[in-house]
Amino acid sequence: MLYRSVTAAALLAPSVLASPTSNGQNHTCKKTKVAILGGGVAGVTAAQSLSNHSIDDFVILEYNGEIGGRVKHTTFGKDASGKPLTVELGANWVQGLGTTGGPQNPIWTLAQKYGVNNTYSNYSSILTYDETGYSDYTSLFDDFENAYSVTEQLAGTILTDSLQDLNTRAGLTRGGWKPKKDMKAQAIEWWEWDWEYAYEPEVSSLLYGIVNYNTSFYQWSDENNYVWDQRGFNTWIKNEASTFLGKNDPRLHLNTIVTNVTYSDTGVTVTDSKGGCVEAEYAICTFSLGVLQNDAVSFEPEFPIWKQDSIDTFDMGTYTKIFLQFPPDKVFWPKDTQYFLYADPAERGRYPVFQSLDAPGFLEGSGIIFVTVVHDQSYRVEGQSDEKTKDEVMAVLRDMYGADNVPDPIDFMYPRWSLEPWAYGSYSNWPWGVTLEMHQNLRANVGRLHFAGEATSAEYFGFLQGAWYEGQKAGEIVAGCLKGAKDSSCVQDKHYAPLHGSTAVSEYDVQNGWTVTSFQTNGF
Length: 524
Ligand SMILES: Cc1cc2nc3c(=O)[nH]c(=O)nc-3n(C[C@H](O)[C@H](O)[C@H](O)COP(=O)(O)OP(=O)(O)OC[C@H]3O[C@@H](n4cnc5c(N)ncnc54)[C@H](O)[C@@H]3O)c2cc1C
Ligand SMILES: *[C@@H]1O[C@H](CO)[C@@H](O)[C@H](O)[C@H]1NC(C)=O
Ligand SMILES: *[C@@H]1O[C@H](CO)[C@@H](O)[C@H](O)[C@H]1NC(C)=O
Ligand SMILES: *[C@@H]1O[C@H](CO)[C@@H](O)[C@H](O)[C@H]1NC(C)=O
Ligand SMILES: *[C@@H]1O[C@H](CO)[C@@H](O)[C@H](O)[C@H]1NC(C)=O
Ligand SMILES: *[C@@H]1O[C@H](CO)[C@@H](O)[C@H](O)[C@H]1NC(C)=O
Ligand SMILES: *[C@@H]1O[C@H](CO)[C@@H](O)[C@H](O)[C@H]1NC(C)=O
Known about the structure:
This protein is an alpha/beta fold. 31% of the residues lie in helices and 19% in strands. Strands 1, 2, 10, 11, 12, 13, 14 and 22 form an eight-stranded mixed β-sheet that branches. A seven-stranded mixed β-sheet has the order 8-7-17-18-19-16-20, with helices on both faces. It has a three-stranded antiparallel β-sheet with strand order 5-9-6, with helices on one face. The radius of gyration is 23 Å and the shape is globular. The chain starts with 29 loop residues before the first strand and ends with a helix. The site of one 2-acetamido-2-deoxy-beta-D-glucopyranose has 11 residues, from helix 3 and helix 6.
């Protein structure tokens, strides 16, 4: 396992004076106004949001030894001087940037604020391969993109006319795209769809998949910038946290594994694996959908059916980057190209996209390339040994570039996101046929326990910006409640039970201020 294991060491932060309440385990509970469960983007942003509203009595309980959550890096390989290089295991791109003075992705604003090094990902800088080597099937990109335009418009019609959702397969078929057994077409489709959503078009929502794309890439800009900063992508999170958390701030409890959360209409009690306990007036749970699906934390009382069903219905995708370093003087792939797409003759999505970090503007001279798999291929790869995966990837590279040209790698590594007990997957995907109301049930509070994270964002699920906006919103709601607001700043999130059919979007807008309408006025 890649990640450092959590030690049984005491809280890094000095423990706070116990107050005379008991959690029934003969431990006294620390009292606070807000317990923030998880210190990823949503948790840190929720804390900042509270702080901005002058609520400073909160604690953040975080499993790992540092904040950032799924924005996580490690060292891999070495540069020419023997210094270890940093690569990102989780989030890697800022997706949809925006303009100075114009609408801008908050993650882009923050990445720029802290000078996070990044480079434009040029998706036209690509060469295509099959098991016989280089094979130019790039004309299929145009076929796909033509079908995609039809698919986007169809999603627009579904939205504006409140029609029933379809799966993305049906949308693409309407556009005339039918890859069937053509493995090259399947590779193109994987690049265009699965690579982003971590699931196949068959299981993905057409409507919300397109909403998700449109909100980031048409609202801001159609650019993805790849972060290769040697401090790690989470630099911006750490720096932003330090604007409202002091050094060794006692409110930040790292290496703290939450095991039990007891909630009601009057408060929330949180217990960790060492028996530590926090009694809060409100809590904001930012655990990933994977953590919620895997019963990694026990909630008491059990979630109501309307919430549990939505947790179980949404999809948690897995996205696995497999890193290889070759001797920098023996790089065998074209140096000025960013991407290499491989069409496996037998299995769709088997080692499909290789990405060079040796390309201009990235970690030039590093000899590093990595290949990404998702979903079933991730489960297979994450469930087998490094050695077996390395052999498989090397066989593919030798088919692509010729056995004589490809030396053995000098370093090899990949994370196992589907098995990580603090994530259980990479990011969520909206399954086809799931309504906005059911998604709202994932998002809604139960008693004084609120939820935030990438998965609770209807517009930006899967993206860093989703986690950021949802953290901000949850912080604002809880701050409103603590201030005893009677106005809209303490709105308990609406939930729907029982669920009926499909969403009447217009109605939903009015009740929740969801931004479908604003997408349209923004020219969508
Ligand atoms: C491989 C991969 C690639 C990605 N690529 C991109 C990308 O390029 N661009 C992009 O925008 N997004 C990307 N994402 C998605 C992005 O990383 C997430 O949307 C975002 O980081 C989620 O933030 P969050 O705060 O919602 O959740 P998290 O980051 O998961 O935060 C939740 C926190 O809760 C903690 N926690 C969990 N269980 C417990 C427990 N029992 N006790 C205490 N703490 C606990 C976790 O340690 C974690 O820190 C990627 C994700 C992955 C994994
Ligand atoms: C509870 O804690 C007190 C003080 O540490 C100790 O004396 C007592 O034995 C404990 N009781 C139980 C049931 O563990
Ligand atoms: C908190 O306030 C600062 C300063 O105005 C702002 O930059 C930041 O985005 C705010 N954070 C949230 C989560 O709203
Ligand atoms: C992207 O790559 C293509 C193909 O190599 C090239 O023609 C184009 O100029 C590049 N675009 C940018 C912005 O670098
Ligand atoms: C997405 O954007 C495209 C292009 O602007 C537009 O035709 C379509 O209606 C939009 N779809 C949705 C669901 O927003
Ligand atoms: C950021 O990029 C600059 C210019 O390439 C480089 O000198 C610097 O070392 C980089 N910093 C980090 C932390 O990656
Ligand atoms: C925590 O949850 C587990 C599993 O449901 C349960 O056995 C245990 O009693 C709970 N502990 C506390 C302190 O509530």
